Amino acid sequence: MNYYPIQETGAAAQFPVVRTRRWQTLETCTPGGHVARGVQPETRRVHWQLDYVDLSDAEASALMDLFEQSKGGLKSFEFVDPLENLLRGSEALEQGHWLVSGGVTVAESGASSPAEFQVTNSGQAAGTVGQTLALPGGGNFCLSCWIKGGAGTTASLRIGGHTRQVKTNGAWQRVWLTAPSESTGNTFCALELGAGVAVGLHSMQLEQQAAPSGYRAGTANGGIYPETRFEQESLDVMATGPNRNAVRVKLVSRLTE
Amino acid sequence: MPEFPKLNSGVTTQYSFRRIVRRSVRTLKFLDGSEQRYATTRQGRRWVVDLALLTEAEAERVDGFARQYFDTLEPFGFVDPVNDRMYSKCVLEGGEHWLRAEGEGRHMTRLMVAEELS
């Protein structure tokens, strides 16, 4: 599978980013002002407009190469939405999208927005709560969450083979790990608890950038779009100086959720 | 019934926003200069809600609301921020919803709300 190129910073996009979701509905209007509407779910699309400045020659070439390999808008590639939490269903940790180790229990507790959970590892070995995701290889991803545990309790964040141990202090604190995804295959992203450890948890988020941004609830499809295409017939890369390029990219994908 | 999303400050709109009332009239003009007028399709009120400087959570709330609406087409309640009058059956117009991220905590969007007459 082809992936949308990652910049040298490890991110996929620059500000500003515009994302537009479009739906087609069938409408029937009567002279009396009554309107009957019907949904056409198969027509849902999501569009992105990405404006880049100061791209290096290599970064600009990577975009042009993908455009040529994809034959413009003909073939699809995977794109990671820079405006979405990549974890599917981040408000429902006890449900199907999440891989929960044996011995680890997840129960809703406290506030509902964002949803808070009590995660308890009553097993004899370390356990995890996480997801396996088809992330593009080599990008920088930031896994973050708010966590609360007894003073001195330790937990770990994991992205593939990279981990970061964090110590709780009895109060809610935001912790994060930034690490590259696996170069090939899927990447496991999780919170890991040692045997007998219990913590409060909310606002778990994964995004393709170096540091955590404000929390967004993860949708059911999680922001990874494997069937994305260019939505333009030409890619117009402007060289603005030595090793400096500017380009506008328009992408489109079906909303599969 | 779904409720229009509130920002962190507890309000639903920011300045500037537009309120629109429309009444369509068709006019037939005759050779003698006289006219015959009649009202055509009734239309409810409309509001153009422009939101700027939204945090990620606020943007997600508004975006999620638009997404839920267009997925289900279920009407929602909207309170006119000027007179606090509740319009209980409103829809989003346009068939699309965009979100522009200009930086961390600097998102903007627009919602076109229309009162549905029944």
Features:
heterodimer; A: 257 residues; mainly beta; six-stranded antiparallel beta sheet; five-stranded antiparallel beta sheet; globular; B: 118 residues; two-stranded antiparallel sheet; elongated
Structure description:
- The complex is a heterodimer of chains A (257) and B (118).
- Chain A is built from one helix and 18 strands.
- By secondary structure, chain A is mostly beta strands.
- In chain A, strands 1, 4, 5, 16, 17 and 18 form a six-stranded antiparallel β-sheet that branches. Chain A has a five-stranded antiparallel β-sheet with strand order 6-9-14-11-12, with no helix packed on it. A five-stranded antiparallel β-sheet of chain A has the order 7-8-15-10-13, with no helix packed on it.
- In chain A, strand 7 and strand 8 form a beta hairpin.
- Chain B has 118 residues and is mainly β.
- Chain B contains one helix and eight strands.
- Chains A and B meet through strand 1 and strand 3 of A and helix 1 and strand 7 of B.
- Strand 1 of chain A pairs antiparallel with strand 7 of chain B.
Short description:
Chain A is mostly beta strands and 257 residues long. Chain A has one helix spanning 57-69; strands spanning 17-22, 25-29, 35-39, 45-55, 77-80, 99-100, 104-112, 115-121, 127-133, 140-148, 154-159, 162-167, 173-180, 187-193, 198-207, 224-230, 238-241, 244-254.
The quaternary organization reads as: heterodimer
- Which term fits the overall shape of chain B? elongated
Helix content of chain A: under 10%
What fraction, in percent, of the residue positions of chain B are helical? 10-25%
Report the total helices of chain B: 1
Largest interface here, residues on each chain? A-B, 30 and 33 residues
Structural Rg of chain A: 21 Å
Compute the CA-based radius of gyration of chain B.
Answer: 18 Å
Structural class call of chain A reads: mainly beta
Mean pLDDT across residues of chain A:
90
Query: Major beta sheet of chain B, specifics?
Result: 6 strands, antiparallel
Number of strands of chain B: 8
Strand content of chain B: 35-45%
CA distance, first residue to last residue of chain A: 21 Å
How many DSSP helices of chain A? Answer: 1
Uncertain spans of chain A: none
Largest sheet of chain A: 6 strands, antiparallel
Q: Which spans of chain B have pLDDT < 50 for at least 5 consecutive residues?
A: none
